[in-house]
Automatic annotation (TrEMBL):
Residues 124-218 form the OmpR/PhoB-type domain. Residues 124-218 bind DNA. This is Response regulator. Residues 2-116 form the Response regulatory domain. The modification 4-aspartylphosphate is found at residue 51. The keyword Transcription regulation applies.
Length: 223
């Protein structure tokens, strides 16, 4: 999943970006509040990790602005401000989670996965569609009880489709989910990954909506 990291500390930001990427996230990193608000308004991120002490525009002001603009993506505030009134204000302004630095990287990743899962109406840790079970934490896929090896891109694409099961996603939306800044995207990349998923998981799972994109169906088609 693609997230925005807004953190002005260069060492912490670089460490968070590298660590979250190793855990399967696509991470775009900005270092000031103005850039954070601009990117959140422009790009369909799955979630954002937002520091409060940002230059140019305070993180709390960024949070208030995007909520007033109607943006509903999950926001995890990651900050050194540990006073109870700060936590209360952050949650009241619109944060979905409030974490005080320092934080364990695996805990941060787990919190992000939970926020994204809930934002898509998925209460369970693992996602299920037809006979396929996807575990975001373990980055594993099982079909009919058997493990199915997928590449990182194939897993991310399947994850996006399963989070949005029953909803048609365009090729552009899927590409935005798969690639962060600076990563080269081939014109037919999404089609290639879909082809590989169908070869590994069967053709019934992902349907093409001609001229629009792809949709993953929850139930097996009736014979």
């Amino acid at each position: 999943m693609r997230i925005l990291l807004a953190e002005d500390d260069p060492l912490l930001g670089d460490g968070l970006r590298a660590g979250l990427r190793q855990l399967g996230f696509q991470v775009d990193w900005v270092r000031d509040g103005g850039a954070a608000e601009r990117e959140l308004r422009a790009q369909p991120y799955a979630a954002t990790v937002l520091d409060l002490g940002l230059p140019l525009k305070d993180g709390m002001a960024v949070l208030a602005a995007i909520r007033q603009a109607g943006l509903t993506l999950p926001v995890l505030v990651l900050t050194a401000r540990d006073a109870v009134p700060d936590r209360i204000r952050g949650l009241d302004v619109g944060a979905d989670d409030y974490v005080v630095k320092p934080v364990d990287l695996n805990e941060l990743a787990a919190r992000l996965r939970a926020l994204v899962r809930r934002s898509h109406g998925q209460p369970q840790e693992c996602l299920t569609a037809q006979d396929v079970v996807l575990d975001p934490a373990a980055r594993s896929v099982v079909q009919a009880g058997l493990s199915v090896p997928l590449s990182a891109r194939e897993f991310d694409l399947l994850h996006a489709l399963m989070l949005n099961a029953g909803r048609v996603l365009s090729r552009e939306q899927l590409a935005q989910h798969l690639y962060s800044w600076g990563q080269e995207v081939e014109s037919n990349a999404v089609e290639v990954h879909v082809h590989h998923l169908r070869r590994k998981l069967g053709s019934a799972l992902i349907q093409t909506v001609r001229g629009v994109g792809y949709v993953l169906t929850r139930e097996l088609p009736r014979p």
